[in-house]
Design goal:
The chain is α+β, with helices and mostly antiparallel strands. The chain is built from five helices and six strands; from the N terminus they run H-H-H-E-H-E-E-E-H-E-E. The two termini are 21 Å apart.
């Protein structure tokens, strides 16, 4: 099961390699650390599946160990900042991470609240919730959070904490 998020996807690898990977990942992590959750979480604000990507280029498709796990770590920093400020919104919300089964460039942290589009709450379409082996691996990135992981039909993974906001499970 965990091979879905750890296996490289050569069909979606960008044509150019990272010329300075250490510099690139320092920048990715700096942007995540500088992310200002308060800017996106003012009282009275709403979010219609607002999201933050760390890997638009899809370099995480090259493999979990050297690439995707580093982008995931950046997403976890943003998730933690949003979770710490969740009460600022003053309304119900959902907070979760999506690891796309086909393209790592689509991995993101999502924040969702009641909104004018009236599509709240969202219920994520997963095949199975509660995947202990995935939750255990990802727990190392989000210590202090109780995690639930669900697998989608295309091998993607959704992660959320039932202690933060409202559930995303059907």
């Amino acid at each position: 099961m965990t091979h879905h998020i750890f296996t490289p996807n050569p069909k979606a690898v960008p044509p150019r390699r990272l010329s300075h990977p250490k510099r690139h990942f320092r920048k990715v992590m700096r942007k995540a650390r500088e992310f200002d959750a308060e800017e996106y979480m003012q009282p009275g604000d709403w979010a219609n599946l607002w999201h933050y990507h760390a890997d638009w280029g899809g370099n995480g498709n090259r493999g979990w160990e050297r690439y995707r796990s580093k982008y995931f770590a950046a997403l976890c920093i943003v998730y933690t900042k949003l979770a710490a400020n969740i009460n600022r919104i003053g309304c119900p919300c959902q907070l979760f991470i999506s690891l796309n089964g086909i393209d790592a460039g689509q991995d993101a942290v999502y924040l969702h609240t009641p909104n004018p589009s009236d599509n709240y709450p969202t219920e994520l379409d997963v095949v199975r919730w509660g995947i202990p082996e995935v939750e255990e691996v990802l727990q190392g990135f989000l210590p202090g959070f109780k995690l639930r992981a669900g697998e989608t039909s295309d091998g993607g993974i959704f992660i959320y904490s039932p202690d933060i906001g409202e559930t995303v499970e059907k």
